[in-house]
Amino acid sequence: MINEHVGRDVPEDWGYDGGCSFCRIIAKELPSAVLYETDEVVAILDILPLRPGHTLVIPKVHISHVTDLPADIAAATGAAVSKVGKAVSEGKSTRGLRRATGATGV
């Protein structure tokens, strides 16, 4: 879909937690359908999608809490969400994105 990830090496200095499924996907130890990838993030199709095109944008650093995400990686994640969201919306002829949130009534 978007080929910016083709031919890029994954930096060795990214944190890795062998028990984390996302770290294992990033390390290519688990299969995934990659839609987009940069040095900072990867976007994959969800294996249990809520609807067609359901995509996860994952930072390549192992972070347990979003509040610990470095500003530059947060910015890269936001940019990827925008780019991938637009491409998926156009490809699926849908309008906009839905965000994951724990809030009710949103």
From TrEMBL:
InterPro entries: Histidine_triad_HIT, HIT-like, HIT-like_sf. GO terms for biological process: nucleotide metabolic process. GO terms for molecular function: catalytic activity. Residues 21-106 form the HIT domain. This is Unplaced genomic scaffold scaffold_89, whole genome shotgun sequence. It comes from Pisolithus microcarpus 441.
